[in-house]
Amino acid sequence: MATIAEALNIAVEHHRGGRLAQAEQIYRQVLQVDRSNFDALHLLGVIADHQGNYEMAVQCITQAIRLHGSYAPFHANLGEAYRKWGKTTEALAAFRRALQLDPELVEAHANQSLPLLLMGDFAAGWREYEWRWKLAEFTPPPWPQPAWDGSPLAGRTILLYAEQGLGDALQFVRYGPLVQARGGTVIVMCTQRLIPILSTCAGVDRFVACEGQVPPFDVHASLLSLPGIFRSDLTTIPADVPYLSVANELVEAWRGVLASDGQFRVGIFWQGNPGYRGDCHRSFRLSEFAPLAGVAGVRLVSLQKGPGLEQLANVPFAVENLGSRLDEQGAAFWETAAVMKNLDLVVTSDTAIAHLAGALGVRVWLALSFAGDWRWLQGRSDSPWYPTMRLFRQSKFGDWPGVFERMAVELSAIVDGSSPT
After folding, report:
1. Burial class for 307, CB neighbours closer than 10 Å (0-12, 13-18, 19+)
2. Does position 293 have pLDDT exceeding 80, yes or no?
3. In 3-state terms, what secondary structure has residue 278?
4. Cβ(244)–Cβ(170) under 8 Å?
5. DSSP codes of every residue in 15-79
6. What is the pLDDT of residues 219-258, one digit of tens each?
7. What's the distance, CA 186 to chain centroid?
8. Beta carbons of 296 and 375 less than 8 angstroms apart
9. What is the pTM of this model?
10. Which of 123, 143, 174, 271 is the 20 to 30 Å CA partner of 296?
């Protein structure tokens, strides 16, 4: 029979391999034998966190801390569970305790940047966000050239690169003009399929594909590091929209397809990448749009591509499906952008579609989970990043019906002319 230590080693291997059910079973078996085993309690809490059961995660990790409160990673993981649960104050307290115990704990530094940014404490948040480069899941830039510190470029060439998702590239390419104003040549490196839409942004001299050869440059910076380099705060975010555009001829080509006939055209998007760990909180079912479909005079137009399209087969209300006709040439968001310019409103989950709409300056409503991403701040219905965006937040976890009922009331007022916004 395996000892407790051997059982925990087996469970950890299951855990690392993504076999969470098997790992959870062993942790529970260990706790049946030894209720004070703080390792099993802590790791059971980490699994609960991965499964989205943040209340259980907090309970388990808190119990582990009562038994062994001097171990900094316990407090850091407690902070993560609190953060994802939407309890910002408690999260920061846990991260700070972790750093008191271990001032160099990378996870605590990097993860506490998110509640700081969420609260609008950009000075501390951007500084802590740079610790991400020391996390195992981040690969530091491989080039020998120095990282840019914001100093005058004096004719040098700077390489700006997109390090994370498509939405991040769409959001932070806006800093191109500010970088260019420092007196250098600006090159942006991103995935090839983003180049057509990003190249409409001013302030960038050249776009190159990350799949190709890296051109010569003198200094570099991640697009996501630029807000910190420029010390952006809530009053200085560069938010002049539109800062992206699309070819007029393509907009005109879609104008005929989407002729309104007096209807209020609402583009909808509901499903992000299901492989993203937090997708269960940001994405929702197409059926949630039923209250909007019930507003007289509204025409729903699907902007969905890939996963999620299968839901159209069983939806009980009318949705015009453009998915198979959008961006067929491999240029991400190019035709989608042209469609958006012909819509009266875009309603979307928290995906790149939201950033595209905001960057184009079209009216967009964003449906947010109870514990929304840091960039949407907290307690606000507007976004300093996108002046044409409105935020509709869950009042509690999982309450998508409440979000869409509130949207329907607002939409009805707009369509019947009783509300100007």
Report:
1. middle
2. yes
3. coil
4. yes
5. HHTT-HHHHHHHHHHHHHH-TT-HHHHHHHHHHHHHTT-HHHHHHHHHHHHHH-TT-HHHHHHHH
6. 999 999 999 999 999 999 999 999 999 999 999 999 988 9
7. 25
8. no
9. 0.93
10. 271
